[in-house]
Write a structure and sequence with these properties.
Blueprint (H helix, E strand, L loop, with lengths): L4 H7 L21 H9 L4 H25 L1
């Protein structure tokens, strides 16, 4: 069986209904599942991006500390 759009949003760290957007001059409530699955497939998972960002931040801070100690 297939994951629902809402399950995909949840697994990627987005709030429920996040991918509901106006589509082809129709209101967001009428957005079909196909474009929503496509948008989620082209996105990056929030928890992964948060983890990568925190690691980059830690590396930058460590580098600053090393430069400060060597000066």
């Amino acid at each position: 069986s297939r994951l629902t759009v809402e399950e995909c949003e949840f697994l990627q760290g987005f709030p429920r209904g996040y991918s509901k957007i106006p589509w082809r001059k129709k209101p967001a409530e009428d957005c079909p599942d196909g474009p929503r699955y496509k948008a989620l497939g082209n996105s990056m998972a929030v928890p992964c991006m948060r983890f990568i960002g925190s690691r980059i931040n830690a590396a930058v801070n460590a580098e600053k500390l090393l430069k400060k100690e060597s000066a």
